[in-house]
Amino acid sequence: MRPILIGTVLLSIAAAYYMYLPLPNTISEPWKLMFSDALIRGMMKLSFLAHDLGLTSPFGLAKYYSAWADAKSIESSPSVRATEASFGGVEALVFESTAAGQEQSLKRGVVYFHGGGWTLGSTKMEPYFLQCMTMAEELNSVVISVEYRLAPDARFPDQYNDVFQASKHILTAEVLGRYSIDPKRVAVSGDSAGGNLAAAVAQQVALDSSIPIKFKVQALVYPALQALDFNTPSYQQNANMPILDRPMVARFWLEYLNGEQKLVPALLANNRTALDQGQEIAAAKAKTVWTKLLPVAFQKSYKPMFPLQGDSKLLEKLPGLLDVRAAPLLAETKVLKAVPPTYIMTCEHDVLRDDGLMYATRLEEAGVDVTVDHYEDGFHGCLSFAFGPFRFSVGRRSLGNYIHWLKENL
Question: Which catalytic residues are annotated (predicted)?
């Protein structure tokens, strides 16, 4: 009995040591977050180890484990009908409000793209499934959650092409009429990598004259919008913060842009934006100057970090770095002028915080009406923690405010 007791104590200490992270006291429910992060971190480390051993792609095991979070079946509720559909050859889940007395009236429409680093996630993943059910019910709307292809089976621009083609097909009188969606009240939205895709699609739809029906608003939830600077204040401040740390973002970008994982150190060192790079990089970098684009309160005492010399061939290896379809923050001002009114959610304890804040400034300078919804106690992915046993107060609060903004503006 004594050896078992000692072993149990030692295992408990080891587990506590692994779980513990020094977190700021302003973050929401830190111990619950540590536990959630430990599970995710362990899964990712196993996945990267399997890749290093030549067994899977970098996120292969993580993708397998995340599939356990998928809803077991596509079940409707008394107030929302959930069905599978295809738009422009791209699969999707459709969530239709069936509120009494509202079946024949025109409804709001939301085209939604889930997060997951262009590599993980699914429309059937329980947090996204429940989120879309909730949105359809509370907005009395039709929410179309698009099942775009994922890396490594698809690479940029495949994910973008999927969501753009689906959106183009949805924004037709035929499809909107089929689902009783008001053509003047359609939004595009997404979180994290899905927020990246939503921003890119909103830009393209606004410019495409072959699409007569436009999005009324866009709603971006902690979006990833650029891969030129991994040393903005939020990247420096939150480098090791749950649920998404700085190296993990670089890994996701490399998967999306079909780069080798050995380039992670080069991305983290900002080698593509070194001072000796050419005019093309200089022009793009001018759109990510956080000392001009971030409110002073978010800059704090951080300093820009750019090496004197960089990898001259990095752009050849990763041409998507400067493509606005991958990095919407790099769009020209004339493009930004065309996008619809915008909602951007940001979280203080998120490496991607400054991407959203810089985009908000650029849109405002272009004359776009922007609402920034910032959470001082928020962390990356908090909206997905609005349900289930790991529900966070900031998750419920952020979901409620996000839906409220759509209700008021869509």
Answer: 192, 350, 380
Cα 99 versus chain centre, distance: 30
Residue 9 lies in a domain: no
Q: Is 350 a catalytic residue?
A: yes
Q: What is the mean pLDDT of residues 104-127?
A: 95
Give the Cα separation of 356 and 333 in Å (integer): 16
∠ at Cα 204 (248, 106), nearest 5°?
105
Q: Is residue 300 part of a domain?
A: no
Q: Write out pLDDT tens, residues 279-330.
A: 777 788 889 999 999 999 999 999 998 765 667 678 888 999 999 999 999 9
Residue 108, domain extent: 67-227+320-409
Residue tagged active-site, from 141, 145, 167, 192: 192
pLDDT, position 11: 36
pLDDT of residue 17: 42
191 tagged catalytic = no
Exposure letters 295-325 (e unless 16+ CB within 10 A, then b): eeebbeebeeebeeebbeebbebbebbbbbb
Query: Does a structural domain hold residue 126?
Result: yes
Report whether 195 contacts 117 (CB < 8 A). no
Give the Å distances, CA to CA, from 337 to 38, 183, 195, 254, 407: 42, 21, 19, 30, 24
3-state class (DSSP) for residue 313: coil
> What are the angstrom distances between the C-alpha of 76 and each of 80, 82, 180, 326?
6, 5, 18, 34
Give the Cα separation of 163 and 68 in Å (integer): 24
CA 134 to chain centre: 19
Q: Tell whether 347 is covered by a domain.
A: yes
DSSP structure class, residue 70: B
Q: Tally the domains of the chain.
A: 1
CATH no. for residue 86? 3.40.50.1820
Point out the catalytic residue in the list 350, 354, 355, 373. Answer: 350
Instruction: Examine the residue annotation and report whether 51 is marked as an active-site residue of this protein.
Output: no
Buried b (16+ CB within 10 A) or exposed e, 60-75: bbbbebbeebebeeee
Q: Are 216 and 247 in contact (CB under 8 A)?
A: no
